[in-house]
Design brief:
alpha+beta; five-stranded antiparallel β-sheet; Trna Endonuclease, Chain: A, domain 1; tRNA_endonuc-like_dom_sf; DUF4268; nucleic acid binding; DUF4268 domain-containing protein; 313 residues; 37% helix
Length: 313
């Protein structure tokens, strides 16, 4: 393309798109595709519960949850520079809903408030995370406006991992290794053009992955002790769905091209459908081999199970 045909990118004033913070911007952000943009920036799957949710005399802009875990999320929007009033509100809302994740979306992040959010992350444990996100609007020529989220402050997971594990060097090393494994897996999958919606990496032996259903999700796991690596469909509390899938067992396994392990677990609420192979997280030289297996099996699970679950009534 000749250089003289290239467009010019320009920044757009917010009020051209959203005249009112609550009725315009909050409603825009609460739409599924826009929450997904925010999800992609943060690395967690955000599922809307309610806009303008009441907390005493106040209303939180967006109340949501992490799709795979049910952890509560509060989102406070501010189409202006950060201020002390909104900083106080996000803490109030987090307390009121016992939220695990707090997201402050702003036009401009002042340095003193970035420092305040950093301080909150440094002085809380792994179960509470604060994110400060700056949003901008851009346009090329007369194109539609395009939003761009930018992470200003986020939790320091390495620091929290070490802090949580004080008193046990072995546990600290294991947690740090688990976090590193899943972070590198996310990078590997991204570099290999995955269509998986991978959540934020945590220092656990597992990683949950959305499959597009509120009734089930995938779980990838890499054990630190029994030399087993797994991909499974986890159904938290619905034996009816498990039976719905089990009746199609032959068809499902034919699509996979392999046998799966079907675990109804009648004495428990949850059910599982899984495949596993050998693997040990300590074998760092084999991580890329493990990543390839996890990505392939997870994409197969998503391809097969997501379309069948959509047919469940």
């Amino acid at each position: 393309m000749p250089a003289n045909n290239l467009g010019k990118i320009s920044k757009v004033e917010f009020r051209k798109a959203w005249n009112h913070e609550a009725s315009d911007f909050t409603n825009w952000l609460a739409e599924e595709e826009n929450l997904r943009l925010l999800s992609d920036e943060i690395g967690i799957d955000i599922k809307l519960i309610q806009t303008e949710a009441s907390v005493g005399k106040f209303n939180v802009d967006i109340l949501a949850e992490e799709e795979n875990t049910g952890k509560k999320i509060v989102i406070e929007n501010q189409l202006e520079a950060t201020n002390h009033d909104h900083l106080g509100k996000i803490i109030t809302y987090a307390s009121g809903y016992e939220a695990n994740i707090v997201i402050w979306v702003v036009k401009e992040a002042r340095e003193e408030h970035r420092q305040a959010v950093d301080w909150l992350n440094e002085h809380t444990d792994e179960d509470l995370a604060f994110f400060l996100i700056q949003i901008e609007l851009w346009q090329i020529g007369m194109s539609p406006f395009a939003p761009k989220f930018e992470m200003i402050s986020k939790p320091n997971d390495w620091a929290k991992t070490i802090k949580q594990s004080v008193g046990s060097n072995k546990v600290t090393e294991t947690k740090a290794q688990q976090l590193q494994f899943w972070e590198q897996f996310k990078n590997y999958a991204k570099d290999h053009n995955t269509n998986l919606r991978l959540q934020k990496a945590y220092p656990h032996h597992w990683m949950n992955v959305s499959i597009g259903s509120s009734h089930a999700h995938m779980a990838l796991s890499m054990s630190s002790f029994d030399e087993v690596m797994r991909t499974e469909l986890y159904i938290p509390d619905n034996k009816e769905i498990y039976n719905f899938l089990y009746k199609q067992r032959d068809k499902i396994e034919k699509e996979f091209g392999m046998k799966l392990e079907w675990m109804e677990l009648p004495e428990r609420k949850a059910s599982r459908i899984k495949v596993e192979t050998s693997g040990l997280i300590d074998n760092t030289d084999e991580w890329e081999t493990y990543f390839a297996w996890l990505q392939k099996t997870a994409e197969d699970f998503q391809r097969v199970f997501s379309k069948i679950l959509k047919k469940y009534k």
